[in-house]
Write a structure and sequence with these properties.
- There is one protein chain.
- The protein is α/β, with parallel strands linked by helices and about 425 residues long.
- It has two domains: about 160 residues, Lyase, Ornithine Decarboxylase, Chain A, domain 1, CATH 2.40.37; about 170 residues, TIM Barrel (Alpha-Beta Barrel).
- Helix content is about 30%, strand content about 25%.
- It has twelve helices and 21 strands.
- β1 and β2 form a beta hairpin.
- The N and C termini lie far apart (about 60 Å).
- Bound molecules: ligand LLP.
- Ligand LLP binds next to α10 and α11.
């Protein structure tokens, strides 16, 4: 048992759905990301069905994994999207996503991105400062448009997660303090090209408890009440993303329990509920497949040097994040403790510390729970082409992104003429 649905052993060989990872490695090479269509679909449907009859929109946070095949799958299931750049907007449109289901988050939207989004008629801008609102109003005016806006409120709630991915504390750069948001909503008349249609918050990522979500929701409900008493017509409440997944022994709430709790805490309001899940939709639907180049035994440690590195999966180096590492073939041999490291010239280039594995050089390893913030955060550090991405659908294998070539990497660089 791998503990990851859709990625499991058959006769000691790790499979994704009905395809062996060994077969994928021999056909497409390593390192590569491998996703399961069934796992993606099940995660989306778990969210959707938990909302039951409640008016809702799931806006998948594109940053978690922005491959257009994945965006297209979610679009076909009815999903909306949470974007944070003009680039993500173009991806969603290319993938067939409905612009009328897009919310645009982020503290630093530039004028060009605002124009693109206004042109596309997106559902809503999640505005994070008064300065941004002034610019958006001006651009909408120039385009003779009205921009729909939610203010992103910073509810000052401790998400109890890694400090780098906590966003809802008053000292974080995100959102607008509730009091200030109240004042801005009251000054709506100063922004004739803005229509305030929503209220938004997002307190962090990889949350493993429900309580901080409920604290944030209760603060948002208070603000909603105040605004309604002042005559503002708010159409939706966006409670952000952030539901955690199990990487190892975390026990996050299930999708169903999380959504049910949000619905229960907001059952007395009639507004449409929006959420922006990223990791919980894609995290456990993908793995990073890598091959061991060398085993290196030093007096201090055993190293398994693999062909994937921090440029492919940055989370261990950046957050000291833990990803399970499983052998693709369970060989039943002698177990040793390994540092699983990549070829990049940094001591921070590791995928896992002290992993108990039985290994031979040439073996394949699966780095689990890599569907979220894996490929989307990858880079070309050390002039390493980015990995291929593969989607498995039952017994069919699709390449959804070709492995990059070195020629592509350097194609736009120029040597000085003299
Ligand atoms: N909405 C907003 C405004 C966000 O900033 C984020 C994530 C999400 C939604 C989606 O959150 P999720 O459901 O995925 O937790 N690179 C980090 C995670 C950064 C999250 C940033 N914001 C990691 O690898 O853990």
């Amino acid at each position: 048992m791998s503990g990851f649905p859709e990625f499991d052993y058959r006769n000691n060989e790790l499979f994704v759905e009905s395809v062996s990872l060994k077969q994928i490695a021999s056909e497409f090479g390593t390192p590569c990301y491998v996703y399961s269509r069934a796992a993606l679909t099940q995660a989306y449907q778990a969210f959707d069905s938990a909302f039951a009859k409640r008016d809702h929109l799931i806006c998948y946070a594109v940053k978690a994994n922005s491959n257009i095949a994945i965006l297209n799958l979610f679009a076909r299931l009815g999903s909306g999207f949470d974007i944070v750049s003009g680039g993500e907007l173009q991806r969603v449109i290319k993938a067939g996503g409905d612009p009328g289901k897009i919310v645009f988050s982020g503290v630093g939207k530039n004028a060009e991105e605002m124009r693109l989004a206004l042109n596309a008629n997106i559902l809503c801008f999640n505005v994070e400062s008064e300065a941004e609102l002034i610019v958006l109003n001006q651009i909408a005016k120039e385009m003779s448009k009205i921009a729909s806006v939610s203010l992103r409120v910073n509810p000052d709630v401790d998400a109890k997660t890694h400090p780098y991915i906590s966003t809802g504390l008053k000292e974080n750069k995100f959102g607008i303090p509730a009091k200030e948001a109240e004042r801005i909503y009251q000054s709506a008349h100063l922004f004739p090209h803005i229509r305030f249609t929503g209220l938004d918050c997002h307190i962090g990522s990889q949350l493993t408890e429900i309580e901080p979500f409920l604290q944030a929701s209760s603060k948002m409900l208070k603000l909603l009440e105040t605004m309604q008493s002042q005559g503002l017509q708010i159409e939706h409440l966006d409670l952000g993303g952030g539901l955690g997944i199990r990487y190892t022994n975390e026990t996050p709430p299930s999708i169903k329990d999380y959504v049910s709790a949000l619905c229960a805490s907001t059952q007395h309001i009639k507004q449409r509920l929006l959420i922006e899940p990223g990791r919980s939709l894609v995290g456990n639907s993908g793995i990073l497949l890598t091959r061991i180049e060398y085993l290196k035994h030093t007096p201090a440690r055993n190293f398994a040097i693999v062909d994937a590195a921090m440029n492919d999966l940055m989370r261990p180096a950046l957050y000291d994040a833990y990803h399970d590492i499983l052998p693709v073939h369970n060989n039943g041999g002698e177990i040793k403790s390994y540092q699983v490291v990549g070829p990049v010239c940094e001591t921070g280039d590791f995928l896992g510390h002290d992993r108990k594995l039985s290994l031979n050089s040439g073996d394949l390893l699966a780095v689990m729970s890599a569907g979220a913030y894996g490929m989307s955060m990858s880079s070309n550090y050390n002039t390493r082409p980015r990995a291929a991405e593969i989607m498995v659908d039952r017994d069919t294998v699709h390449v959804i992104r070709q492995r990059e070539t070195i020629d592509e990497l350097i194609a736009t660089e120029q040597i000085l003429p003299q």
